[in-house]
């Protein structure tokens, strides 16, 4: 399924596909990716292989009231390699800050309209 266009109706839990990536050192690798959870507009969880292990990216969106939502975001690497475990620790605060800025931009855009 490399390079294949995917229809929205095909996206569901258990859907597996492959994607090619080029690393900074020009190494190319193929990642096996699996959608673990998918509920449009509410939840998404993707697990994919990386050279040193597995990465999980997920989010959930919960409506709190007519003006508020709660977004939970996860980006985790599962690996036995110490450098990858360290990346999880050091990258967590940077990812949180980046996601907070993104959500603030989205909120500002929504409130303007």
Shape: globular
Mean pLDDT: 83
Rg over alpha carbons: 17 Å
The strands making up the biggest β-sheet line up spatially as 1-2-3-4-5
How much beta, percentage-wise? over 45%
User: Structural class of the helices, strands and pairings?
Assistant: alpha+beta
Binned, the helix content reads 25-40%
Low-confidence stretches: none
Query: How many strand segments?
Result: 5
**Span of the ends, CA to CA:** 39 Å
Largest sheet: 5 strands, antiparallel
| Element order: H for helix, E for strand | EEEEEH
Count of helical segments?
1
Summarize the structure.
By secondary structure, the chain is an alpha+beta fold.
Write the layout of secondary structure elements.
Blueprint: E1 16-22, E2 28-39, E3 43-50, E4 53-65, E5 68-78, H1 82-112
Antiparallel strand pairs: 1-2, 2-3, 3-4, 4-5
Any overview of this molecule?
The structure is a single chain. This protein has 113 residues and is an alpha+beta fold. Helices cover 27% and strands 45% of the residues. It contains one helix and five strands, in the order E-E-E-E-E-H. It has one helix spanning 82-112; strands spanning 16-22, 28-39, 43-50, 53-65, 68-78. The protein has a five-stranded antiparallel sheet. Strand 3 (43-50) and strand 4 (53-65) form a beta hairpin. The longest helix is centred in the C-terminal third of the chain and has 31 residues, at 82-112. The radius of gyration is 17 Å and the shape is globular. The termini are far apart. The mean pLDDT is 83.
